[in-house]
Specification:
The protein is mainly α. It has one domain. About 80% of the residues lie in helices and about 0% in strands. It has 3 helices and no strands. Helix 1 packs across helix 2, helix 1 packs across helix 3 and helix 2 crosses helix 3. The protein is globular.
Length: about 80
């Protein structure tokens, strides 16, 4: 059940990151996939910084930050 919650949080984070990072996007499905991968990236980056999230809201914040970072890096490379 934990994996299902993480995927749903990643999808929500991707949608939020798509709204935050306006401009040429990857479409709804692309932003959702980036959100799932970005949530993993956000967890890794925040974990390296010693910051951890508790609860659903904290997980959404970290996942959204990771998704925004990933969208920024992808758009920077493009």
């Amino acid at each position: 059940m934990y994996l299902v919650w993480q995927i749903l949080i990643g999808i929500l984070a991707g949608w939020l990151a798509g709204k935050i990072m306006r401009g040429r996007g990857f479409g709804l499905l692309g932003d959702l996939i980036v959100g799932v991968v970005g949530s993993l990236l956000g967890g890794l980056v925040f974990g390296l910084l010693g910051l951890y999230a508790y609860g659903v809201i904290g997980s959404i914040v970290i996942a959204t930050a990771g998704a925004v970072l990933l969208l920024y890096l992808i758009r920077l490379i493009r």
